[in-house]
């Protein structure tokens, strides 16, 4: 329905004029789209230019490791992958617990490039997957908006999506996470849905289900789609906009989509068993009832009016039965949406689109779903309102073109009238202001991409009066582990660093960021909160050889293990009640200075973090907590320090062997007396 | 509400429905039969599941969804080839059938994968 058939105009001169314009417009918008793709790709490269081509943060390291496995071992081994190098000694079934879309996409790209004899490393492919797919996402946005409003609006929307900061934050080069491909899949699925709605073709319905399948593969956020589309269908039905095209767009999607979703191992039977999918089934039933009623109505309307009245009675009865259903569904959906921040943006975008609704009748079926799609991407900003309202004159003229296909001669008149509505000066000034606003928005986006969202978080930088400092301690530590420990050694750390340890150091870890087993995490938390001997026993029972702690006290890195420590205590105490949070707090305050409790000063985390710390400046001043530490001189009895990075950000300790412990028993009793508080003040055991 | 009048209404309604349906072209009637058969097959499976249990859940799911999917796609085809639906004028019946076949192929490919 949206396909503008302007070339059917009667007047020949106008026709050639129009087709010429269309041809020019087509070529121009092709090149604009190309440039938008380049923009979307290149605005995300700041992280590579400012730092280097590395994978960022935590989860991307896991995805990277999975991709490496996929490219090395192949797809079947990937599906059956039981990873014994994490969650030691439990292991983790990876093939059945990951959304495979991202990994398979990057693996396919890598395989394709290699078969063309372009020898890129897997890491490079992973780093650049997100920027490539954000270009695809902006093209999909163009298609979506074009389907709803027209080419001009489509180009604007694509340009906005290419540089909207919230999307950039999840898709800079190196941010190799599920959202990298999922946002594209999301928009493309909505586009195909609206395309199906507008054409009523089963072909597009099939494509729509396949796009939905890709979305299910890539991200748990597919539940947005399977709740938003039923909501749109329900809205259409309630407002009396049901059409056969709606049925063709929705019913095959539910059946095919459910089956396809069930094919993905991580979803499996959840596709029919869990509540977030029920809304779609309920609406599936509702649409069948409604379709049947409409069909009967269509057959009977030319017949006797009396029969129609009896029919209306039956329809009323049916509605009475369905009444409670409606409220159930809406409750279901609102709870689903409340999970995301989308709802706020959604209402805002509805408000902005409302004036358009009144003027277009057949197109606004797609209107709401486009709004929801954009709400998903957080693409709708207040700036967008300005930007699109700037775009409105051109759009309006396009709309008019569509409406007045039969009598193009009136078009010119209408346009003249519209132009006369505003004084020239005012409109010029308004346009200039809007262009300025748009330009500022672009500047803001580029700034956000360059400054706010490009830090890889495994390499840190700081600017100080004597220039730029680079803290590359994490990779230094993981590199040390990789080169200096045995390949089967187990490394214990808080779960935050699990993915990075397995990916970068290739060592077995006890817990990692896939926090699927609370007891296991609580065990590590308990060990960190226990005194040295008890901690040693716990770690030894887990066959741990090395313990890794992150410590920011020397350089002022605030997200270190001491700041996370209360969580270890809480999680540990949740399973092992002998760990009590109040023991670590002095009058409800968390402190590590001389006022701290003795439990705190004797727990493993404190000792591993602050061991030998006083040697750095002679006072033991912690620059994160901004205080001198409470216990400065102490020895380790069950652990020995094996490596500390350049800025002390990562410290690695080795568990002493049991026989050493037996021999050291006499030593221990000595050190106990020496480490008593009175002993500390008298002498420093290190001198 | 008089009982006799309502029953008369129902009779009139039944008659008009019958006469209206009699006017449907034959090819649409064939599709209706096909849809009815698919729904019937799905019902048999659901009843069987209720009696025997849903143990190979893959098989049950793929069986029922195969029937439901077939019915839904046939309804879509029926909507598209119905000459009274003016909004599908630009989709030729041949095109509609080709789409129908494609969609069915995808559906049953997926089902064969899912059978387990």
UniProtKB/TrEMBL annotation, chain A:
EC number: 2.4.99.18
Organism from which the protein derives: Corchorus olitorius
Biased composition (Polar residues): 358-375
InterPro entries attached to this UniProt entry: Oligo_trans_STT3, STT3-PglB_core, STT3_N
GO cellular component terms attached to this protein's record: endoplasmic reticulum membrane
Domain STT3/PglB/AglB core: 488-547
Transmembrane stretches, start-end: 23-43, 93-113, 125-144, 150-168, 180-205, 211-235, 247-272, 278-296, 419-443
Keywords: Endoplasmic reticulum, Glycoprotein, Glycosyltransferase, Magnesium, Manganese, Membrane, Metal-binding, Transferase, Transmembrane, Transmembrane helix
Protein name: dolichyl-diphosphooligosaccharide--protein glycotransferase
Catalytic activity: a di-trans,poly-cis-dolichyl diphosphooligosaccharide + L-asparaginyl-[protein] = N(4)-(oligosaccharide-(1->4)-N-acetyl-beta-D-glucosaminyl-(1->4)-N-acetyl-beta-D-glucosaminyl)-L-asparaginyl-[protein] + a di-trans,poly-cis-dolichyl diphosphate + H(+)
Cofactors named for this entry: Mn(2+); Mg(2+)
Stretches with biased composition (Low complexity): 676-687
Family per record: Belongs to the STT3 family.
Location of this chain's protein in the cell: Endoplasmic reticulum membrane
Molecular functions per Gene Ontology: dolichyl-diphosphooligosaccharide-protein glycotransferase activity; metal ion binding
Bilayer topology annotation: Multi-pass membrane protein
Domain Oligosaccharyl transferase STT3 N-terminal: 27-307
Listed pathway(s): Protein modification; protein glycosylation
Quaternary assembly: Component of the oligosaccharyltransferase (OST) complex.
First-level EC class: transferase
Listed Basic and acidic residues bias regions: 380-410
Primary localization class, coarse: endoplasmic reticulum
Comp. bias regions, Basic residues: 663-675
Region (Disordered): 358-410, 663-687
From TrEMBL, chain B:
Location(s), subcellular: Endoplasmic reticulum membrane
Superkingdom to which the source organism belongs: Eukaryota
Keyword Transmembrane helix in annotation: yes
Pfam families xref list: DAD
UniProt entry keywords in alphabetical sequence: Apoptosis, Endoplasmic reticulum, Membrane, Transmembrane, Transmembrane helix
GO CC annotation terms, alphabetical: oligosaccharyltransferase complex
Gene Ontology biological process terms, A to Z: protein N-linked glycosylation
Membrane topology reported for the UniProt record: Multi-pass membrane protein
InterPro entries assigned: DAD/Ost2
Pathway(s) per entry: Protein modification; protein glycosylation
Bilayer-spanning residue ranges: 33-51, 57-77, 97-115
Function of the protein: Subunit of the oligosaccharyl transferase (OST) complex that catalyzes the initial transfer of a defined glycan (Glc(3)Man(9)GlcNAc(2) in eukaryotes) from the lipid carrier dolichol-pyrophosphate to an asparagine residue within an Asn-X-Ser/Thr consensus motif in nascent polypeptide chains, the first step in protein N-glycosylation. N-glycosylation occurs cotranslationally and the complex associates with the Sec61 complex at the channel-forming translocon complex that mediates protein translocation across the endoplasmic reticulum (ER). All subunits are required for a maximal enzyme activity.
Oligomer status and interactors: Component of the oligosaccharyltransferase (OST) complex.
Family note: Belongs to the DAD/OST2 family.
Listed PANTHER family: DOLICHYL-DIPHOSPHOOLIGOSACCHARIDE--PROTEIN GLYCOSYLTRANSFERASE SUBUNIT DAD1 (PTHR10705:SF0)
Identification of the protein by name: Dolichyl-diphosphooligosaccharide--protein glycosyltransferase subunit DAD1
Native source organism of the sequence: Corchorus olitorius
């Amino acid at each position: 329905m949206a396909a503008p058939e302007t070339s059917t105009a009667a007047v020949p001169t106008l026709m050639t004029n129009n087709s010429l314009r269309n041809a020019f417009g087509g070529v121009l918008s092709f090149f604009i789209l190309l440039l938008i793709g380049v923009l979307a790709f290149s605005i995300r490269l700041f992280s590579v230019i400012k730092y280097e081509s590395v994978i960022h943060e935590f989860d991307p390291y896991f995805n990277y490791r999975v991709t490496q496995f996929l490219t090395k071992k192949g797809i079947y081994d990937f599906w059956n992958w039981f990873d014994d190098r994490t969650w030691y000694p439990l292991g983790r079934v990876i093939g059945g617990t990951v959304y495979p879309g991202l990994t398979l996409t990057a693996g396919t790209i890598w395989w394709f490039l290699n078969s063309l004899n372009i020898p890129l490393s897997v890491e490079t492919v992973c780093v650049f997957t997100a920027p490539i797919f954000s270009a695809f996402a902006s093209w999909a946005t163009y298609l979506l908006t074009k389907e709803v409003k027209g080419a001009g609006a489509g180009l604007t929307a694509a340009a906005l999506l290419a540089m909207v900061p919230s999307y950039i934050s999840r898709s800079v080069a190196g941010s190799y996470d599920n959202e990298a491909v999922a946002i594209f899949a999301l928009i493309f699925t909505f586009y195909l849905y609206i395309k199906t709605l507008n054409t009523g073709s089963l072909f597009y319905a099939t494509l729509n289900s396949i796009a939905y399948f890709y979305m299910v593969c890539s991200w748990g956020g597919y539940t947005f789609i399977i709740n938003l589309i039923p909501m749109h269908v329900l809205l259409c039905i309630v407002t009396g906009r049901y059409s056969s095209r709606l049925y063709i767009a929705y019913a095959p999607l539910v059946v095919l989509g459910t089956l396809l979703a069930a094919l993905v191992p991580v979803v499996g039977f959840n596709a029919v068993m869990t509540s977030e999918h029920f809304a779609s089934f309920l609406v599936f039933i509702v649409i069948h009832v409604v379709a049947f009623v409409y069909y009967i109505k269509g057959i009977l309307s030319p017949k006797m009016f009396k029969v129609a009245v009896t029919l209306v009675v039956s329809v009323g009865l049916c509605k009475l039965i369905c009444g409670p259903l409606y409220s159930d569904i809406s409750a279901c959906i609102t709870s689903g949406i409340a999970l995301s921040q989308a709802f706020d943006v959604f209402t805002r975008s509805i408000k902005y689109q409302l004036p358009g609704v009144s003027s277009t009748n057949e197109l606004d079926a797609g209107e709401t779903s486009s709004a929801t799609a954009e709400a998903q991407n957080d693409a709708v900003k207040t700036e967008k309102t300005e930007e699109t309202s700037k775009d409105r004159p051109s759009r309006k003229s396009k709309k008019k073109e569509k409406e007045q296909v039969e009598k193009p001669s009136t078009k010119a008149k209408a346009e003249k009238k519209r132009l006369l509505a505003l004084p020239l000066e005012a409109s010029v000034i308004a346009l200039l202001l809007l262009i300025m606003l748009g330009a500022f928005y672009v500047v803001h986006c580029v700034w956000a991409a360059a400054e706010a969202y490009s830090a890889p978080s495994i390499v840190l930088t700081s600017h100080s009066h004597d220039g730029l400092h680079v803290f590359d301690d994490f990779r230094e530590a993981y590199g040390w582990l990789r080169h200096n420990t045995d390949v089967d050694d187990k490394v214990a750390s808080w779960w935050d660093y699990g993915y990075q340890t397995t990916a970068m150091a290739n060592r077995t870890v006890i817990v990692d960021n896939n926090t699927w087993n609370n007891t296991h995490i609580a065990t590590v938390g308990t060990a960190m909160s226990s005194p040295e001997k008890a901690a040693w026993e716990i770690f030894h029972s887990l066959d741990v050889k090395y313990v890794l702690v992150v410590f920011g006290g020397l350089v002022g890195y605030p997200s270190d293990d001491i700041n996370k420590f209360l969580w270890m205590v809480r999680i540990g105490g949740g399973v092992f009640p002998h760990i009590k949070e109040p023991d670590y707090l002095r009058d409800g305050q968390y402190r590590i200075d001389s006022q701290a409790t003795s439990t705190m000063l004797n727990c493993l985390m404190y000792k591993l973090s602050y061991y030998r710390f006083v040697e750095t400046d002679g006072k033991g001043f912690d620059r994160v907590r901004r205080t001198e530490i409470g216990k400065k001189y102490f020895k380790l009895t069950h652990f020995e320090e094996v490596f500390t990075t350049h800025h002390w950000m990562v410290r690695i300790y080795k568990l002493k062997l049991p026989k050493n412990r037996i021999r050291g028993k006499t030593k221990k009793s000595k050190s106990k007396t020496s480490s008593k508080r009175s002993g500390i003040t008298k002498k420093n055991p290190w001198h | 509400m008089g009982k006799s009048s309502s029953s008369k209404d129902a009779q009139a309604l039944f008659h008009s429905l019958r006469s209206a349906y009699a006017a449907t072209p034959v090819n649409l009637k064939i599709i209706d039969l096909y849809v009815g058969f698919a729904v019937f097959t799905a019902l048999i499976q659901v009843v069987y599941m209720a009696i025997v249990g849903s143990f190979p859940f893959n098989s049950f799911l793929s069986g029922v969804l195969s029937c439901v999917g077939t019915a839904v796609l046939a309804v879509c085809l029926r909507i598209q080839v119905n000459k009274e639906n003016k909004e599908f004028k630009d989709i030729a019946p041949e095109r509609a059938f080709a789409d129908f076949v494609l969609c069915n192929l995808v559906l049953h490919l997926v089902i064969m994968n899912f059978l387990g």
